[in-house]
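Structure first, sequence second, as always.
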């Protein structure tokens, strides 16, 4: 990737950063001719980041910060509205297909605060009639009346961070809830939402295969429309990376993965992405848009964006620390970094996402989302196919069962050659 260079007709008007206070100039800059030629713009999603949580978990590498008291809700919500207003020139004429409110712990927002947030977004952006609005929630913050209000405000899908139903494992993970609170959260979700996801982790510290099996059985008994099942990893710059706990070895983890595959299949959950399992028609629309290389605008501290224009694709990152984000938002530009994706990296990024999908993608989607001919990656496709990692025909590109098991190897085949 390379930094975006000034792209207006008069480059001397720029100082290396676009002035978002002048919407017309912003739009003109991004719409100028470039290296690509996209036939159509992909669906657009909105990601909203709420950076505070009650307690930072030792495995978490997300941009989350312990609240240590009340969060500055009013100030932050005002900044989010201004952030979205500032970005409007980049997405004029486009409607939102999905919204995801993530964190941190978004369920720290008051009912009135969440209503204000969605009202502001609705005022500024047109919604697709079937829009999916997901909110992440921590079982330790579930209050029945508050979640009833969230639903009334327009949230129509929850993603609940259960992680485990085993209280001792939750304690080892540093979670603020226990097994009983996890079950209560599911009950509240069922009463107010007909669409929700449960996040669970496996290969936890000292976890046995039977304990992992019990977690999966309990989750399935809760009858969620969607399950996300993640292998615990020791991410850099986390407490677990510095002080790693004893976790199941590779063989034990593989046994857990095999058990998960069998249990979810038997229960009627389709394994449609690396870590995602859904009942029929209940796939996560927001995440599917990521994996199909759709567009997303991210607002809030540390939020990332990927936005397409007729002749270029850009990525943005907003200032990560909440205080820094708020300060820069007051100055009129919360974007810390902006880059234009190079042609060869565009092809890699597309395949990096698309090969996560069990059923792969329609071959025409590559050209539609990248503006590039498929033959630009012909050598890599042939190599992956010859190794049995990829299946392709005139309609489809998808990982084989072997490709799913060795996904990293498959994805690396599409890295640009230096």
């Amino acid at each position: 990737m390379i930094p975006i260079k000034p792209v207006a007709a008069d480059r001397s008007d720029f100082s290396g950063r676009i002035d978002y206070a002048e919407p017309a100039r912003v739009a003109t800059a991004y719409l100028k001719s470039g290296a690509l030629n996209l036939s159509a713009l992909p669906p657009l999603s909105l990601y909203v980041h709420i950076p505070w949580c009650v307690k930072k978990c030792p495995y978490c590498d997300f941009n989350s910060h312990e609240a240590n008291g009340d969060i500055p809700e009013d100030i932050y919500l005002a900044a989010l509205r201004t952030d979205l207003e500032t970005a409007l020139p980049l997405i004029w004429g486009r409607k939102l297909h999905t919204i995801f409110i993530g964190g941190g712990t978004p369920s720290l927002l008051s009912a009135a605060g969440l209503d204000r947030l969605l009202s502001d977004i609705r005022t500024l952006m047109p919604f697709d009639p079937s829009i999916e609005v997901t909110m992440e929630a921590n079982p330790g913050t579930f209050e029945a009346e508050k979640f009833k209000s969230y639903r009334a405000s327009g949230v129509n899908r929850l993603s609940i961070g259960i992680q485990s139903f085993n209280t001792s494992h939750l304690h080892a993970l540093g979670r603020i809830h226990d097994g009983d609170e996890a079950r209560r959260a599911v009950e509240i979700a069922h009463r107010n939402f007909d669409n929700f996801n449960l996040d669970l982790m496996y290969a936890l510290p000292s976890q046995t295969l039977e304990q992992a099996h019990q977690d999966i059985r309990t989750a399935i008994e809760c009858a969620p429309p969607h399950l996300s099942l993640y292998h615990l990893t020791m991410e850099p710059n986390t407490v677990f990376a510095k002080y790693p706990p004893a976790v199941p070895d590779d063989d034990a983890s593989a046994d857990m993965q095999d058990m998960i595959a069998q249990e979810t299949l038997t229960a009627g959950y389709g394994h449609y992405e690396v870590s995602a399992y859904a009942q029929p028609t209940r796939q996560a629309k927001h995440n599917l848009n990521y994996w199909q290389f759709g567009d997303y605008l991210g607002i809030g501290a540390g939020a990332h964006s990927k936005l397409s224009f007729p002749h270029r694709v850009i990525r943005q990152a907003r200032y990560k620390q909440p205080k820094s984000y708020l300060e820069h938002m007051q100055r009129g530009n919360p974007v810390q970094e902006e880059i234009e994706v190079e042609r060869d990296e565009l092809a890699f990024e597309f395949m990096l996402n698309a090969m996560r999908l069990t059923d792969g993608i329609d071959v025409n989607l590559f050209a539609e989302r990248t503006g590039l001919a498929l033959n630009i990656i012909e050598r890599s496709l042939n190599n992956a196919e010859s190794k049995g990692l990829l299946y392709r025909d005139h309609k489809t590109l998808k990982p084989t069962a072997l490709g799913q098991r060795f996904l990293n190897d498959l994805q690396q085949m599409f890295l640009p050659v230096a």
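Margin note: Confidence is low (pLDDT under 50) at residues 1-17.
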